[in-house]
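step 4 of 6: structure.
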Amino acid sequence: MSRTSTLYVCSACGGQSVKWQGSCPVCGEWNVLEPVRASRAPQRRSAAAEPLPLQAAAGDLRRLSSGLDELDRVLGGGVVPGSVTLLGGDPGIGKSTLLLQMAAQVAAGAPVLYASGEESAAQVALRAQRLGLSAPSLEILAETELGTVLERAGERAAALLIVDSIQTVQSERLDAAPGAVSQLKECAAELVRFAKRRATAVFLIGHVTKEGSIAGPRVLEHLVDTVLYFESETSSRYRIVRATKNRFGAVNELGFFAMTETGLREVRNPSAIFLARAPEPAAGSIVTVTREGGRPLLIELQALVDRMRFGAPRRIAQGLDANRLAMLLAVMNRHAGVSLQEHDVFVNAVGGVRIDETAWDLPVLIALASSLGERIVPGALVAFGEIGLTGEVRPVAYGEERLQEARKQGFQTALVPRDNAPRKPIDGLRVVPVARVDEAIEAAFSSSPRPVQAARAPARS
Ligand code: TYD
Ligand code: MG
């Protein structure tokens, strides 16, 4: 006998409630609870479940290559057979393109099924043609019924199954519409079981809602092994694939791509893609070397300091933590004698990137002093370093690697925490170690003797 009961699931966060309410008890959103009929079939005991020695349990875990090193990297070294990966992103960002390229590559050595509920088989084929992909063992299936998709994948013993998109498939066993929470959950769970049973790698494409979660429920994220997000800055042709969950590799790995007329191309040396500086260096601008997704990335930071007109001074930070900015302003005041209490302060990480580390402390401090005093930081200078409350410049991780990258990108001077100074000199790069904030500000401008205009009082006399 199977019992059914009704459960209410939030379409925004996936939270559950046993009774209907106006708002979700977990995330507080209004009008998001959807009824889901949960059937509890009597548990059948599986005869096959026997414990295995740990060594044997790993089986043959040879990863497949997606043909794109950047994607393999984010996946932790390639596609794991039997794993389920969710790829989320805005419509039109290139999810179908990326997975079609991967499918064609994998199909060179194993059967692959691309199930498309979004586009017709002809549309997918046309795109493949435009991308110059030819793979005889890649099959396209325009189908939205999950049972059929799994049957076809099973018949072909597919090594890779792509479902484009999870929001368009439906299971006959449920009468809810495709995309409804109950369908998403049921279909994803069914796909996970299929992947594990058949050792088929499954990729699910998921559209992202306005709020940024894979539409709508986060429930999918718990079910799958790996969650990838495809991101892009508006109007940029660069695309970033970020792993936010990965049972088979590190999270926060990044893969960089550029969208071209012939599909997605890997960006093998992404460190400078966000660095589009004005030809003439300007006051308030400086370049830093941050570390995102396990590798160094050069980013321009800008600061604007403007005399406050009225009210309380404004502190606005784009891509950086505003609380940390407030702390830096206090340290500047106390330990470098630079007061910005009467000024509005704006800082910005150019390119729309978000920097989540403390290495931007030092460059931002210098950019602020640069804007205030209208003094230019030399264009060939980079800076990184953390700043402490007592005005000391503290080392950051991977100092040497950051310096090497700066040199590779043609920078000639690096202002770094004293403890990050390399033991051996780096060819072509002058390293200026600093220990305190006042010293750092002095050093940043000492090699730029020309102020832009007859400036206001310099940052520090
Ligand atoms: P697509 O993969 O369909 O996006 P998604 O599946 O995430 O919705 O990509 C669509 C966009 O990519 C579309 O605006 C056109 C662009 N594009 C190119 O610029 N070059 C190409 O070779 C392809 C196939 C698409
Ligand atoms: Mg698509």
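step 5 of 6: annotate
 - Residues 245 and 255 are 14 Å apart (CA to CA).
 - The first strand starts at residue 3 and ends at 10.
step 6 of 6: archive
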